[in-house]
């Protein structure tokens, strides 16, 4: 039986679930898009505020499914913050489109709920439940514009591949359950403690699970869907997939590995090292060939997940700190980049071809500077959050003796400089007005979106110049 403390600890999740129902009721009474968007914004703010209220009872376990600790609250904060930003930039994107955007906000709440459940999972049942809530909502969000060829194509690709990956994940869980007799992370750890090496059945099950997890993270060789989905999905949805969706999955992967002490198994670590190297190299090389900005950012995200794996592989407290900081920097930077694309997109199509950004500085100087800051952060240039994030990852890898991994990270980052700087030079070159003009039908909402992008840019610079504030918050994180 659940206690009052259980309900209090679950406040953020309950608020997200209740918000989706409330928005459905508001749609039923035929409120306008603007009213529903503002209501959703307030509900996201309330959900985000509830994370501060539950701090006093941390850590708190809701046996056997969930654990609410500092790390899970931090990841939930990043996820809800991402959804909050996506909510704000979605209004100007969907207002002039052909589809009714109201149900979009219901799906956004459900996807956020699924990602937050993943961040708090300590059991395979809650892991799969959170993953399916997230994924099923994304099916609809990716293909939200039913009349557009690229959206339908992206939605079908994601649907088919996600179904296959879920089947691999479930089969892997079944084999692990057959071997250990439990689905709880800590109980699996106790079962494995009696073995000097991983049993073949467990290793097979984890290998199958890795296919499902690798698909959600879009790491090589499970990355084939990424560019098509990033390009075909509505831009705010792409921003959500690149941040909140991957953050929740990465959080549960860390928690599972720390629970079973998977870092001591050389076979498993060799697989992760191979995936990290392949993701860093292939992600950056594929991005070099692209002329579509959303596809460039898609392949860039593959490389960034490889960077995160470099911090993940050593294990230990320093890994948790560097991963937490890099996730925060990556979330803010990616939201800023896709936010600029969203604001510049028009009714007919998204502004995504690199040629559309030619002379952008002369038409929209503020947006060009904001986009440049985001791209420089993704490239890891000093005085940005991305540079400090890569510095912590390099420090973690070097301290643990993974010199080859850190060397590949540095070399692949140099390749990444080319395609980021190519976009920046395009924005500052020429003096002709070649970028599409955006209708200013709702100037107040454009102003609000621009203010949000300015705040994200300030965070990028703040974390890059003064990282100790964020590090003081995350340096005591312990995954329990």
Tags for this entry?
single chain, 480 residues, mainly alpha, 2 domains, two-stranded antiparallel ribbon, 75% helix, globular
Write the layout of secondary structure elements.
Layout: H1 4-9, H2 11-28, H3 33-53, E1 60-62, E2 66-68, H4 70-94, H5 102-120, H6 124-142, H7 149-180, H8 185-192, H9 200-217, H10 226-232, H11 235-260, H12 266-288, H13 293-312, H14 317-344, H15 360-363, H16 365-379, H17 385-399, H18 403-428, H19 443-465, H20 468-474
Antiparallel strand pairs: 1-2
Largest sheet: 2 strands, antiparallel
- SSE arrangement, N to C: HHHEEHHHHHHHHHHHHHHHHH
Mean pLDDT: 87
Number of domains in the coordinates? 2
Q: In DSSP terms, counting alpha (H) and pi (I) runs of 4 or more, how many helices?
A: 20
- The total strand number stands at 2
Cα(first) to Cα(last) distance is 23 Å
Low-confidence stretches are 434-441
Helix content: over 70%
Q: State Rg.
A: 21 Å
Summarize the structure.
With 480 residues, the chain is mostly helical.
Note down, in words, how this protein is organized.
The chain is mostly helical and 480 residues long. It has two domains: 1-259; 265-480, no CATH class. The protein is 75% helix and 1% strand. The protein has 20 helices and two strands. It has helices spanning 4-9, 11-28, 33-53, 70-94, 102-120, 124-142, 149-180, 185-192, 200-217, 226-232, 235-260, 266-288, 293-312, 317-344, 360-363, 365-379, 385-399, 403-428, 443-465, 468-474; strands at 60-62, 66-68. Strands 1-2 form a two-stranded antiparallel sheet. A hairpin with a 3-residue loop joins strand 1 (60-62) and strand 2. The two termini are 23 Å apart. The relative contact order is 0.10. Residues 434-441 have low confidence and may be disordered.
